[in-house]
Amino acid sequence: MNTAANFSLRTLDDSDLPALLELYRACEDFLALGPCPRASLEMVRGDLAISRENGGTFQGIFDPDGRLIGVADWIAGGFEGEPATAFIELLMIAAPNRSAGLGRAVVAEIERRIRQAGAQRIELGVQVNNLPAQRFWLRRGYRSAGPPRKFADGTTAIRMRKVIHEPA
Ligand SMILES: CC(C)(COP(=O)(O)OP(=O)(O)OC[C@H]1O[C@@H](n2cnc3c(N)ncnc32)[C@H](O)[C@@H]1OP(=O)(O)O)[C@@H](O)C(=O)NCCC(=O)NCCS
To answer: How many CB atoms lie within 10 A of CB 120?
Structure first.
């Protein structure tokens, strides 16, 4: 079955932690671009806590058989005090499930939900050393919104932005 057309999103709870850890392990190629290349429960719990603190929507991406194959975390509005600005905090798909159209389909669904919530623009950060992701976001209509910034964890990221709804 075509997973890109048949995925589902759902909120995760503590019972999903083992599957989440497996998923993070299947994304260690991506984690290796940042300060902490090895997946751990501490890292998973940390991302969940960041999402909660920021008012995020941390969702699991499931295939038609109910297997967790990705995660997405976004703030539907009010990012950095701007009611009309949404922010995609995290999008991560297990390595074996990439390059098959799933990311594209998930982003379209996130954008649909954010638009429905009333935001007019979506921002995100992408690491300067993650060229495939930069290409991915460019193809989805996101554009660089400022110079690269260095963060306390040692990563350097570019802010990207897409206008999804012009104010009337
Ligand atoms: C980035 C990511 C979410 C994209 O999801 P995906 O399911 O692999 O993407 P898709 O299969 O929908 O591909 C969408 C497009 O990107 C292209 N693409 C995907 N992976 C690519 C790669 N490694 N190099 C170049 N292009 C790539 C596809 O050809 C496709 O092209 P199109 O826009 O012309 O249609 C996924 O690869 C991922 O989870 N990567 C690791 C984590 C990460 O980098 N997250 C983003 C952090 S900002």
So the answer is: 17
Q: Is the CB of 99 under 6 A from ligand 1?
A: yes
- Distance between CA atoms of residues 37 and 60, nearest Å: 21
CATH of the domain at 125: 3.40.630.30
Query: Does the C-beta of 7 come closer than 6 Å to ligand 1?
Result: no
Range(s) of the domain holding residue 37: 3-163
Q: Is the pLDDT of residue 1 over 90?
A: no
pLDDT, one tens digit per residue, over 128-165 is 999 999 999 999 999 999 999 999 999 999 999 999 98
CB count, 10 Å around CB of 37?
Answer: 11
Instruction: Give the chain's length.
Output: 168
pTM: 0.93
- C-alpha 34 – ligand 1 centre gap (Å): 18
Q: Which atom of ligand 1 is nearest to the CA of 27?
A: 41
The number of domains in the chain is 1
Does 153 fall in a domain? Answer: yes
Residue 78 CA to residue 86 CA, distance in Å, equals 7
Per-position b or e across 126-136, b if 16+ CB within 10 A of its CB: bbeebeebbeb
The Å distance, Cα 133 to ligand 1 centre, comes to 6
